[in-house]
Amino acid sequence: MAFAVHPYTISNLIQCFANGSAGASHGQIGRKIHRNYFEEYFKELKAKTIVVETEYIDKDYLEDYAAYYDRCFRSYERQTHRLHFFDMAFSSEDFDGCITAKGGISEQELSAAYLGFVVVKPLPQSIIGRTCLRTYPSDGGRRHFPSLRTYEVHLFGLRLEVQSLAYQEQDTVVAACATSALWSCFQGTGKLFQHQIPPPVVITDWAAEHMPENLVLASARAFPNNGLTASQMAAAVRKLELEPMVISTMDRHTLNGVAYAFLKGKIPCVLAFALREYEGDDRFSFVGLHAVAITGYSLSDGPALPQRTTGFQLRAARIDRLYAHDDQAGPFARMTWCSSSMAGPSHSSDMTMLKTSWPGEMFADIHNRFVMIPLYHKIRIPYAEIHSAILWLDTLIEEFRADSDVPRVEWDIFLTNASDYKASARAEYPALGIPLHDTLYKSLPRFMWRVIMRTEDEIQVDLLFDATGIAQHDLLVHRASRGRIYDLILGHLSNAYTKHPVEVPPQVEAVLNSFAGALPKP
Amino acid sequence: MVNNQLVAFVPAQPVSAADREAVARWFQSEHAGRQLAEAAAFARGVIEEFNRASVIPPEELNRPITLA
Questions:
Q1: If you average pLDDT over residues A320-343, what whole number do you get?
Q2: pLDDT at position A339, please?
Q3: In B, which residues are within 8 Å of A429 by CB distance?
Q4: Separation CA A81–CA A237 (nearest Å)
């Protein structure tokens, strides 16, 4: 029989993993971190049934197999098992009836109940292959996974779909954690920027073409792979004709800002961090360096969190947890911001520790680490350029606002493209009384940095900066606003800037110039 | 001069006369220019500090990312 149907239980899932592996026992699988993770995840997704496809050829595994496993002395299988999950209970006969159109459950019911799949690699330990699962529910709009894409699944002639971003566990042979994280990112950028999506073995091979700077610390050997350096990861990104943008993660404010800005632009990024274990008495031990793909975030609806030194309020600062494809834990694994000291909280914008989904007290320390974002080469203006300009503008505005009753702005900075921006304007502007004509018929660059000024969750001013231009130039290509208090403030600020010129970055000057003469005549 | 090519703008301005006057009074005051210059200097300092803090030591970047 080419398939088997089991009611979903964690024990059945472990047995399915064991059956698809190269001799791993139920006990060995049960001790993997993934076991606990999947138990919680499938509980949240309300999984009821597992369908095992027993003769599945997975392209990514096949490439890894051809490059490495096929040449081992011991024989490994070419074919994999693929486990499909449904939130509906049905029997083997029901499923067979649906496939062969003999009655039972309908194709529509099966399609609606589909939660996604996990490929089980026929290997001894690292068995979680390509995994595409539905995300956690949005929980009232709190959880966001903007970089998902649609995966078509063909199962015995049935066409199913799942919105996801593929995940897989690294095997330390053809892939390291950084390889898996890059592979997941490429799943998103491949669709967005129309590039091929290489299998893990090819990513590792590309990375290894760049010799590590320190051959004592990092092995020069590509396979088996013991970990990639930042420059090796960048080399692999370059092979796809993408540009690796590397940004230092100093604290919560910077990581949230960067992850949010690119995820809203549908681009996942790789986060590298130090994994630390809490040992009690405010002491953490260093476990190693790890990399994950950031795939989503949770925005709290509490008050905006100000940056410590300036009070600058970034919408991204509301992120209280990130979701990551952690090859050692699972897909869309929670990473929750927390204080680095168990004794008491530090200022929220200064936090550097995220509690991971690993069992026990395991933390991701992001201080002095980095995110790497694979970008289309025409996205040239870095996030920091826009962030700095807006922080500067906010500081100027604050000189007046702090003495007034005007609510402080919350700034929303993210990457967008012309069509997404116009679709968003069509949906949002009419209710705000902003005419659409000037926006929709405007010729705009393909990629833009969108900066929304909000007070009390309402758009006041919308600024669009060309992300493909030259940083020394005026990049402001469009502005939409409601003609309220912030238009007035920026109009007066523009006049004051003309009267008392001070040195400001080009993009602050561009915004102020756009408000020149905007004040109504007395 | 307003760049009309740049702006999608609502002509009606629902801002009270008192608010208009308060904003105008502050920006036309003698101290506005000085305060804005101080704010610009402060912003420059913050950005410079951001830039300094964002440098990753090369030896950290050259370490392989591995849990082993």
A1: 88
A2: 77
A3: 8
A4: 30
- Asked if the A193-373 domain carries CATH number 3.90.70, the reply is yes
Q: How large a percentage of chain A has pLDDT more than 70? A: 96
ipTM of the complex: 0.85
Whether residue B22 and residue A476 make contact (CB cut-off 8 A), yes or no, is no
- Which tens digit of pLDDT belongs to each residue from A77-92? 999 999 999 999 999 9
Nearest-neighbour CA in chain B from A391: distance (Å): 7
The average pLDDT across B4-31 equals 76
Q: How far is CA B66 from CA A182, A286, A375, A457, in A?
A: 14, 12, 24, 42
Percent of chain A with pLDDT over 90: 75
Q: Which tokens in the block code for residue A370?
A: 């980095």
Q: Which of A259, A253, A42 is nearest to A146 (CA)?
A: A259
| Inter-chain CB proximity A172 and B62 less than 8 Å | no
Rounded Cα gap, residues A144 and B44, in angstroms: 34
Per the prediction, chain A carries an average pLDDT of 92
Nearest to B12 among A227, A384, A483 (CB): A483
The tens digit of pLDDT for each residue in A437-460 reads 999 999 999 999 999 999 988 899
Whether the CB-CB separation of A184 and A149 falls below 8 Å is answered with no
> Buried (b) or exposed (e) across A283-310, using 16+ Cβ within 10 A?
ebeeeebbbbbbbbbbbeeeebbbbebb
Beta strands in A303-356 (DSSP E): 319-326, 330-338, 353-355
Interface with chain B: mutation pick from A173, A248, A474, highest number of B CBs within 10 Å: A248
Helices (H) and strands (E) in chain A, counts: 15, 19
Please tell me which residue, A382 or A65, carries the higher pLDDT value.
Answer: A382
Q: How confident is the model at residue B1, as a pLDDT?
A: 41
Let me know: does A115 contact A85? Beta carbons within 8 Å. yes
Q: Does A386 touch chain B if contact means CB atoms closer than 8 Å?
A: no
Residue B37 confidence (pLDDT): 92
> Given 3-state DSSP classes, what are the helix, strand and coil percentages for chain A, each rounded to the nearest 5?
35, 30, 35
Domain positions in chain A: 3-134, 193-373, 383-514
Q: Which of A64-68, A159-163, A184-188, A358-362 bottoms out in mean pLDDT, i.e. has the lowest?
A: A64-68
pLDDT of amino acid B2 = 45
Would an 8 Å CB–CB cutoff place B15 in contact with chain A?
yes
B50 and A517 within 8 Å at the Cβ level: the answer is no
Mark which residues 17-56 of B lie under 8 Å from A by CB.
19-20, 22-24, 26-27, 32-33, 35-40, 42-44, 46-47, 49-50, 53-56
Beta-carbon separation of B8 and A478 below 8 A: yes
Whole-model pTM? 0.93
**Tokens of residue A268, six digits:** 């996942």
The confidence score (pLDDT) of residue B59 equals 82
**Higher-confidence position of B2 and A347:** A347
Contact B5, A514 (CB under 8 A): no
For A140, residues 6+ apart whose C-beta sits below 8 A from its C-beta are none
Strands (E) in A392-457, as ranges, are 410-417, 447-455
User: Which chain A residue has its CA at the smallest distance from B44's CA?
Assistant: A392
**CA nearest A417: which of A307, A273, A264?**
A264
